[in-house]
């Protein structure tokens, strides 16, 4: 499959052959219901050696005035019949991406035949080829608008229909799957080498949830009986070499099914639930009804090949896709502007599930770290957009951390404001009212507000881009024993949007007695005006105030703290998340000098030395997190002007070094206290492994004589990938003498396992001392593959963790050449890679100018509307 032959180039005779240089925007305010409803869809997909033929029968009914508009891309129209008669050429028009029938009758049965080319479809949307050789398979990705690459269809989420799907292929592909129930399977009459299967999905669903798989796969089978007494067959499909890595995902599926019954009263509704692992996939996974399709990286897991953090995220993603069955599938989105309706709520649900599988503090730390590193950066730059966007050119560009993670934070604020009982009443009402419908964010809020109408005020969080900054200070009056906290909020105005309004911001607050460290008052403050004061009575002495506990709102906090107050909170806060939060505030105050930061490291280092050794013995996972120093890109996200990557790198490494030295006497003892044991998948065992890897890195940083030896032994005697990869990583980053030898060993051990080889690529591409030449040689490696997004990301996304190299002439040459190369072949991937460069404008000169020139050059050559839209935003044009 060559990258230059793309599906998009199969020119439709009626389609103008010009690149869409001025792609058109669509707007939320222009929403109109579809003029036709679809009752049933009958599909017949016949896969041949070089193409596929798809017959479709759509039974439709007119709803409103207007033309019947069907969308189609890269389809060769072979025949078209309306109510059993061939449709005359003058009764329909075909233009860029649409087929329009002007005077379709009230009841319309449309029969279309098209030819498609899955074998050369590198965009990974629609029906496409994945794998190679004996592992070749054909799979679909239809969200958001891939179904129109399979047939002409009113491909919009508010058109719901019952799908019946016949698949026919050579018997080389014994696995034929689609949504719903298997009705029939057998040989094709008179063609002994071909067979077929017929599936029917009884649920009304939008086309983006359609899926089919034509492959040769093994299956892991299990079952689950729902709270409603339904016996469900569970199947995880993977290529035979991977089938022994499916058990973790299967268990997570059963746990998720039960969790949704207990926590939301939602049971599964079909007799079968299938998951299919695919090695070429643009995103993590897809919630197609009854037939989830997963990136192999997000479903396969085994101790020998998968790190703990990967394995934990497999469980979260399985849960995420399962939870979509109710939040996304049974209740879907009216239009793609409402994407956050299903994604924000479902991310909140998967985060809550994951919090129940480990310490909730650590889960919150990880979720907030991700939000701060990526979403805050997005909201601060030229790609800032509301959680519910108001316009777009290409919806694929809006599968963003703002829609997903900030969307989840809004649901969390609502849930915390209501409390568990009223939140449950609200979600029950949501499912009761809207089951089977395609709805909006307003509908969601109206259901959630049945016990409290103030919840409707959260709508502004969906409409307004930008991260609010909450500033504040306190005044204590000892005569009246009154503490007054003054808080104010400010959100930057983003071009094209109204002057920001004050938002409802829940600020979880506790007052700590300075002498005893005990909590003397605890309250949720609701800041919903520009400035407000909150009074606490009967406070006998001036307390230390802990704010935004558990990160009660997605805001930046600027409180008038002394470093000593933060050190105090590190000691006395009783919630692990809040302790982590103060370490991060201290670190930011030290590292962002020149950005208004003012602290020297002494208080931080001393507080860490006092806290860490003791905590390590009680909660290793939390101890590992408290040693976090934000990554260079994360620090950069807080810098809005004259960002100097070299300076940030030097300051960051300097603090890391000081931290390692401040605790130098402890590393050896800690490392020995955390012995390697037989692999176990418990929170405690994962904590031990996580902390051991951090300690190993610290020990090497502090130049402890034996540490190189520990790394080698840890690699040689590893019981699992977390240990082995942790050791390899420090060997590479600290440039230990035998790092190359170990890299070679790692490659040889795992050369047949793509996901492990991804790790091998990424550890080199993200290495502290990486050079442009290393990146070039990785891209030229025999195992590098442009058609596998996981592999592309294992080099190119890993590379972005080294801004001092990325933001150079050579670094950008490499990065931008990758975007150019992928622009035609896989525009979704190309555009996502481009979005990472959004904050070029904050760089100090001469880097800023250089980046600007390169982006302008790319703009001249960009072809896909995905990349063009992202570039226009990134360049502010
Ligand atoms: N709905 C999927 C999920 O979050 C994401 C699929 C998006 N795919 C895409 N090509 N944009 O679970
Ligand atoms: Zn999702």
What would you note in describing this structure?
With about 900 residues, the chain is an alpha+beta fold. The protein has five domains: about 180 residues, Immunoglobulin-like (Sandwich), CATH 2.60.40.1730; about 100 residues, Zincin-like, CATH 3.30.2010.30; about 130 residues, Neutral Protease, domain 2; about 90 residues, Immunoglobulin-like, CATH 2.60.40.1840; about 140 residues, Peptidase M1, alanyl aminopeptidase, C-terminal domain (Zincin-like fold, Alpha Horseshoe). Helices cover about 40% and strands about 20% of the residues. An eight-stranded mixed sheet has the order 6-5-9-3-2-12-15-14, with no helix packed on it. Strand 27 and strand 28 form a beta hairpin. The protein is globular. The structure holds arginine (ARG) and zinc ion (ZN). Zinc ion binds next to helix 3. The site of zinc ion has 4 residues, from helix 3.
Gross morphology is globular
Oligomer: single chain
Low-confidence stretches: 1-21
CATH topology of the largest domain: Immunoglobulin-like
CATH class of the largest domain: Mainly Beta
Domain Peptidase M1 alanyl aminopeptidase C-terminal: 563-875
Region (Disordered): 1-22
EC number: 3.4.11.2
Domain Peptidase M1 alanyl aminopeptidase Ig-like fold: 466-560
